[in-house]
Amino acid sequence: MSKIRKQYSNPSIVSNIETRNLLELKSKTGNIYETIAVLSKRANQINTATKAELHNTLSDFSNLNDNLEEFYENKEQIEISRAYEKLPNAALLSIHELSNNSLMFRKNEANDLFN
């Protein structure tokens, strides 16, 4: 099993819609907009890493003589793709990381225009 699938196949992360306490999320950064920015940046990092790992895994199955006219169904590729589809949404993963204090972030005070 790959690194990302091992890390994020946690059954405690519910992939259903769940109401979040905004005050709890806001308490981590002090500002709800900063929290949203942090969560979105982390979700983009997770998406990028997952996509790169999926492409690396699927590239093992690619054929050098692939033609557009010839398409063969590979069951291993389909199973790998389905396993990645079952992973929770990256936004949910970033919220889970923030809630468990496993997400590290810092403010860049030099570029802060409002203070």
Helices and strands, with pairings:
Blueprint: H1 3-8, H2 22-29, H3 32-59, H4 75-85, H5 90-99
Helix pairs in contact: 2-3, 3-4, 3-5
Structural class: mainly alpha
The number of strands is 0
* Major beta sheet summary: none
Rg over C-alpha atoms, rounded to the nearest angstrom: 19 Å
Distance linking N and C termini:
46 Å
Unreliable stretches (pLDDT < 50, length at least 5) are: none
Structure description:
This protein is mainly alpha-helical. It has a domain at 22-61 and 74-104. 55% of the residues lie in helices and 0% in strands. The longest helix has 28 residues, at 32-59. The mean pLDDT is 78.
Task: Give a nutshell description of this structure.
With 115 residues, this protein is mostly helical.
Essential attributes:
elongated, 115 residues, single chain, mainly alpha
